[in-house]
Design goal:
27 strands, eight-stranded antiparallel β-sheet, 26 helices, 932 residues, alpha+beta, 48% helix, flat, seven-stranded mixed β-sheet
Length: 932
């Protein structure tokens, strides 16, 4: 009842009140909301600005800190490598002194470079103010460390200090030397420098690294340090708001550096020298800082987390100090170096609020003024609007009573929207009257047209069904009447082509018959396929198969065609594309061949790329295999397709202008391809630009299957042994995965190859240097040292050119093949590989000959013993140089002419060389000549 009461009252209110009151409330609400949002946005802006400033400052600190820490590491890596390579002799302290003196001048940020050996020899070059100090300890110093002032040439000037010293026990109880030796890797430690004397100890951060000789025997420790004050200087130079501060602490709360200029360690000198040089006694905790903000923020962090070690994520906090809010952010850094430092930045809120408070007051004042002006304007506007509307209301009532010619009584000078509305009322009255008179007649006409249209549709449907039945009958007759005689024509023409009694002209004619018959058969098959599709008789013949093998087969099939035209053919599939799928392999192969062949046919330069991606769908209703959508893109850089020809691209027997000019094809490839793709649950689209190229994109639906569902067939020419009278080939297998190495061992070992294995590039170089294998199977991605670096090192030597290196890689990108070959590899094989590829590749590079299954040595001709370097020593040097140049140029004619110059008594050598040249084994000949 109350709702009805209020509704009745509102309905009785004048239009002027209805317009003014809501308008005022809206303006009031808007102004209030603007003021509230202004206040909230001001606070949000402060928070965002503070967080942004702190985040940018943190990133700058982290970046600069990483630069500082990288310098000592690079110095140590360089020095350790120099020792291992024999560039530096750790026993030659004079050489090391000159080397370190030059090094510390190059790296201005480093404050100390040192080395300590297992023999307790110790040498360091340290900065002290503007001078360089040499600190040296050896057997010759009789247990005393001497500090020398060095001149501008790095020569000793005078002794400035001396004291007893044990480099293996510094500091006592926690020596850095033993810690580094035990770790066996690069470590970071805080150390105390007394380069300026025991009365002025300075805490530094040191990077320490063990070094080894060429036999990987531990030789000692190299190190490099820098002053913590360097980081403090950087922090002090940062602009952190007006009064903000930043400092760095470790996981135990010890100060590393601050932006306040405070020294991060105790300067007080104690009488006990051992305590003076102990880092734990010298370092200062943030909780004991002399700076009020640093000290209190550290206490707040400790209260929040109980232990600094528990802070593992980026933290944003707010705390109060002296009734003032501070933004506090903590970010862990350098965890990869096991330093576990925390960057802490604190900025008072007052640094940002002053200007924002002024803006808020101005916004509120402007909002109030706007409210007052809006209310006055609302009253005037409401009165101006309501008066003409009342007159229009009266005119509308007259029209409702059927008075179509009733004129509105408005002022004649009214030309605004309300005036236009009055004129519209007048026109509407006239049009409505005419519409009512003709509406019934039009409805009757439309009804009659609809009935006639439905009758025409029924007739068309009946005709279509008759035509479909006729097409089905035509398909059945064509399949029998045309293919039967063609089978005889093609069969007999093939028999005649193998006949030895035909004349050349008859053979040529027979070949023409065979080719024409094949062309006609292809055309008929395409027509029948298209007809079957349109008649709804084409079905999928799905089966399980290896999708990767299909792609590799297509690449091998079409690669030569592309190369003959000077084009690049690139196959690329994403890692998540399923390998074993269930769909119609034959139709998928035909679609891909059609599209790729078209790309090659209409491309004169550039190439064709095939990209494959997939979308795995979740399992449905407990089925064994999930579904997937496989997406293909075939892109070429050919002549492109004109816009006006795109509409007829998939029409049967229709060809573009480019296709007609090529005088190839029937115009059925693309229509059939589209129908096949539709059958496999997808669709095909095309994008093209004239002069740039064309991209065909299609997708299909497949089921995922397991590898055991694939029926595999053994290769009919399985390798079972090596032919006799061959060298015992030494093969090195390099792969970081034991299963990969075992696969090749199981494949090669039964045949009699001599095998060794390595798990990284470093081991491979060591085994190659001692064992000299004939061939190396090199995996390209390995820890410690990858295959690229190992190959470059081996091929960078003279004897390395006599070893064939074959890359094993899982990449299928054509660009990757170029990178691998440029690194020095002689060839490359993709994973997963077939065993036949392995054997054929070894045959290609070593000349290995095999005995295949169902083949015995008795079935092969008698073989000669392999050619050796000793056989070639009987020939003159000049003749060998000419033969080497001929084989290097792959000139078989010149090579055979040189072989004819071999004396009769060396006929066996001539026969061996002739066989190698006929088999194009030029590399074998070159390698034998190089070994002389």
């Amino acid at each position: 009842m109350r709702i009805n009461f209020f509704t009745t009252i509102i309905n009785k209110l004048p239009l002027r009140i209805v317009l003014i009151v809501p308008f005022v409330f809206q303006i009031f609400g808007t102004v209030g909301l603007v003021g509230y949002l202004s206040f909230k946005n001001g606070q949000k802006a402060v928070n965002n600005l503070a967080n942004q400033l702190i985040a940018e400052t943190t990133d700058r600190i982290e970046e600069n800190l990483d630069n500082y820490l990288t310098i000592p590491e690079n110095i140590n890596y360089s020095n350790a490598a120099a020792v291992k390579l024999g560039i530096l002799n750790p026993d030659n302290l004079d050489q090391i002194q000159q080397f370190f003196w030059q090094q510390i001048q190059i790296f201005s940020q480093a404050s100390d470079v040192m080395i300590t050996t297992e023999n307790k020899d110790f040498l360091a070059i340290a900065r002290s103010n503007d001078n360089l100090i040499l600190r040296i300890y050896s057997k010759s110093t009789a247990g005393i460390q001497y500090n020398y002032l060095l001149d501008e040439e790095g020569q000793k000037v005078k002794v400035i200090a001396s004291h007893t010293y044990d480099p293996h026990n510094d500091p006592q109880g926690n020596p850095w030397y033993l810690a580094t030796k035990k770790a066996g890797k690069s470590i970071w430690k805080s150390v105390v420098s007394v380069s300026e004397g025991h009365n002025n100890p300075i805490v530094m951060l040191a990077n320490l690294m063990p070094f080894y000789d060429r036999e990987n025997n531990f030789g000692g420790v190299v190190g490099s340090t820098f002053y913590l004050s360097q980081m403090g200087d950087f922090l002090e130079a940062l602009d952190i708001g007006k009064t903000g501060e930043a400092y760095i602490i470790d996981s135990q709360g010890f100060l590393i550096a601050t932006s306040t200029g405070e020294t991060p360690f105790h300067k007080q000198v104690k009488s006990d020298k051992i305590q003076n040089i102990d880092p734990k006694k010298r370092r200062k905790k943030a909780l004991n800082s002399e700076n009020l903000l640093t000290k209190n923020s550290a206490k707040f962090i400790q209260n929040q987390f109980a232990d600094f070690k528990k802070i593992t994520n980026y933290e944003k906090l707010i705390f109060r100090l002296n009734n003032q809010r501070y933004f506090l952010q903590i970010k862990p850094i350098q965890s990869e170096r096991e330093l576990n430092w925390l960057v802490v930045i604190a900025i008072p809120e007052s640094d940002f609020m002053a200007e924002i408070n002024v803006n808020n007051r101005n916004t509120i004042l402007l909002s109030i003024l706007t409210l007052l002006i809006a209310i006055v304007l609302g009253i005037i506007t409401a009165r101006w609007i309501t008066q003409p509307i009342l007159k229009l209301n009266q005119a509308a009532k007259s029209m409702g009573q059927g008075q179509w010619h009733q004129q509105t009584k408005l002022q004649s000078d009214r030309c605004d929207e309300v005036g236009e509305l009055a004129q519209s009322f007048k026109r509407m009255a006239t049009e409505l009257q005419a519409s009512f008179e003709t509406l019934e007649q039009r409805v009757e006409e439309r009804t009659i047209e609809l009935i006639e249209s439905n009758q025409q549709l029924v007739v068309a449907k009946q005709k279509a069904e008759v035509a479909n039945q006729a097409k089905s009958s035509f398909i059945a007759n064509m399949s029998h009447e045309l293919r039967t005689p063609l089978n005889a024509i093609l069969g007999f023409s093939q028999i005649m082509m193998r006949s030895q009694t035909l004349s050349p002209e008859e053979k040529e004619n027979t070949t023409i018959i065979n080719k024409s018959g094949n062309y006609l058969l292809t055309l008929i098959n395409n027509i029948l396929d298209l007809s079957k599709i349109e008649a709804g008789k084409m079905t999928l013949n799905a089966k399980t198969f290896d999708f990767y093998s299909l792609l590799n087969e297509l690449e091998d099939l079409l690669h030569i065609t592309a190369e003959n035209k000077g084009l690049a053919l690139i196959f690329d599939h994403q890692d998540d594309v399923p390998r074993y799928i269930y769909t119609d392999e034959t139709k998928l192969r035909q679609v891909l061949i059609n599209l790729i062949n078209n790309g090659i046919k209409f491309t004169s330069q550039g190439g064709v790329s095939v990209t494959v991606a997939s979308k795995i769908l979740p399992e449905n209703g407990g089925k064994k295999a999930a579904n997937a959508t496989i997406v293909f893109e075939v892109r070429d850089t050919g002549s492109g397709i004109a816009e006006d020809e795109m509409s007829k691209l998939f029409e049967a027997f229709a060809q573009t202008e480019t296709g007609k000019n090529s005088q190839e094809g029937t115009g059925l490839g693309l229509p059939i391809s589209r129908k096949f793709v539709n059958l496999m649950g997808g669709d095909i689209t095309v994008k093209s630009k004239v002069g740039i190229g064309t991209t065909f994109r299609f997708d299909i639906q497949v089921d995922l299957v397991n590898q055991e569902d694939i029926e595999t067939q053994e290769h009919p020419h399985h390798v079972i042994a090596l032919k006799p009278n061959q060298p015992r080939y030494k093969i090195l297998i390099v792969d970081d995965r034991p299963t990969n190495r075992l696969l090749l061992i199981k494949l090669l070992q039964p045949l009699g190859f001599e095998l060794k294995e390595a798990e990284n590039g470093k081991q491979a170089i060591e085994i190659w240097s001692e064992w000299q294998p004939h061939l190396i199977w090199m995996d390209m991605r390995m820890p410690v040292m990858d295959g690229y670096e190992a190959t470059q090192i081996i091929k960078g030597t003279t004897k390395g050119n006599a070893t064939a290196i074959i890359a094993l890689t899982a990449s299928v990108l054509e660009e990757q093949k170029a990178i691998i070959l440029s690194a020095g590899c002689d060839d490359f094989v993709r994973k997963p590989f077939r065993e036949s590829i392995i054997f054929e590749t070894m045959k290609k590079h070593l000349g290995v000959e095999y005995i295949y299954e169902q083949e015995t040595p008795a079935q092969t001709p008698s073989e000669l013993a392999s050619l050796t370097a000793e056989d070639l020593q009987a020939m003159p040097t000049e003749w060998l140089e000419e033969l080497y140049d001929a084989t290097k140029a792959l000139d078989d004619d010149l090579s055979l002419e040189l072989i004819e110059q071999i004396p009769v008594e060396q006929s066996l050598l001539a026969e061996k060389l002739t066989n190698l040249v006929n088999d194009f084994q030029f590399k074998t000949i070159r390698q034998l000549i190089e070994s002389l």
